[in-house]
Amino acid sequence: MHVNVADQPAFGEAIATRLAELAALSDEPGRLTRLYLGPAHRRATDLVAYWMREAGMSVRIDPLASVVGRYEARDGGGKTLLIGSHIDSVRNAGRFDGPLGVVTAIDVVKAAFKSGKRFPFAIEVIAFGDEEGVRFASTLSGSRALAGTFDEKALDELDGNTISRREALTAFGCDPRHVAAEKREPERTIGYVEVHIEQGPVLEQQGLPLGIVTAIDGVTRGIVDVEGIAGHAGTVPMAMRHDALTAAAEMVLAVEQRARAQPNLVATIGKLDVPRSAPNTIPGRVRFTLDIRSPVDAERTQAVEDIKAVIATVARRRGVLQRFTPGHQAPAAFCDERLSAQLAAAAEACGATPKRMPSGAGHDAMAFYKIIPFAMLFVRCRGGISHNPDEFASAADIDLAAHALANFLDRIAA
Ligand code: GLV
Ligand code: MN
Ligand code: MN
């Protein structure tokens, strides 16, 4: 079943154009920042819903603000295939991380719709809104709802402005009381597929446009609060200080040292706040985030324990208090062999030699681990740069990914 891509509808440029349209929807002028349930997420939701309708899908916004577009099966019955990714972003983001998978899925369904093609299964294209976990402590709420593992306690989490997730959802027009009804029955679900930019340099280094993900690293996030004693920068002798920031600095370097000691383990302090700070005040409080990942769950959990211990040691020695508050957690998640093989065969049929590779980045797909089989298609990323406005995937590579996805649908149908 070899496909001559040149004879097929061109996807790449159209998808790139839609990604530019979405990138213009931002909470901040001059850069792309689209946080979960914020004003730009609202506008992106409406735009994606419009595109889905244009592609022949019926559309609804679910109780956690995921946009769900449904393309009915040929005979109206059958199982459902889920295809998704996310439309929230980090602060000062690139335009491909998340939206690439959503828009590619919409355009592939649209091509089927325009040619009058239906499948023996329904397709649900889903634009999740809570993948990056920038606004609230936990994340993947939309995908976890579909997996049936959403923890209602997350509704009480507060953002930086002390707005609860529940309040933000209600203001968005969602009713979080109905989350349980979103659980997809595994027996009625073929699987979940996600197209995503690689966000790393491996495909580019190897000169390959596409990759097939084997597994997604597990992750532990948390927040560390350090409390010292604020004081006058001119009057308190160095030896008598309880400086929360210098303590935090030592903790940050200890985290880096622990992560460097273990191959394949990564640890990041991506955010550090010094509240009520001033040039002439010894910092009394610091709050920083921790994000620790590994392909091996036991190595990650051991590293988390070691890091908590070294933070406590630094705090004791420096006479400050510290508290660790756990946040988002997810185990390493392995992709389904059968779906991955079909996706690889589809990519090969379109002329690619996809590389099998792990994902260091997290994805909505991981929420389905051990519940609904999932597979992921990676698209080459220029310079391996992501979570950065310079993130880029070429229209040619996107085109190939879209053809591979279309071919995958035909294989599943067969
Ligand atoms: C999402 O980009 C994540 O891996 O945190
Ligand atoms: Mn992503
Ligand atoms: Mn991301």
Characterize the biggest β-sheet: 9 strands, mixed
Count of DSSP E strands? 16
Query: Segments where pLDDT lies below 50 for 5+ residues?
Result: none
Radius of gyration: 23 Å
The number of helical elements comes to: 10
Q: What share of residues are in beta strands?
A: 15-25%
The small molecules bound here are: glyoxylic acid, manganese (II) ion
Q: What's the SSE pattern?
A: HHEEEHEHHEHEEEHEEEEHEEHEEH
- Overall geometric form: elongated
**Structural class by secondary-structure content:** alpha+beta
Distance between the termini: 11 Å
Helix content: 25-40%
Rounded mean pLDDT is: 97
Walk me through the structure.
With 414 residues, this protein is of the alpha+beta class. The protein has helices at 12-23, 39-54, 99-114, 141-147, 165-172, 202-206, 244-260, 297-318, 337-349, 395-413; strands at 58-61, 67-71, 80-86, 122-128, 189-197, 210-216, 218-227, 231-232, 266-268, 272-273, 281-282, 285-294, 321-330, 333-334, 355-359, 374-379. The strands form 3 sheets. Strands 1, 2, 3, 4, 5, 6, 14, 15 and 16 form a 9-stranded mixed sheet that branches. α9 (337-349) packs across α10 (395-413). The longest helix is centred in the last third of the chain and has 22 residues, at 297-318. It is elongated and about 80 Å long. The N and C termini lie close together (11 Å). The model has no long low-confidence stretch (mean pLDDT 97). Bound molecules: glyoxylic acid and manganese (II) ion (MN) (2 copies). Glyoxylic acid binds next to loops. Residues 90, 97, 132, 387 line the site of one manganese (II) ion (MN).
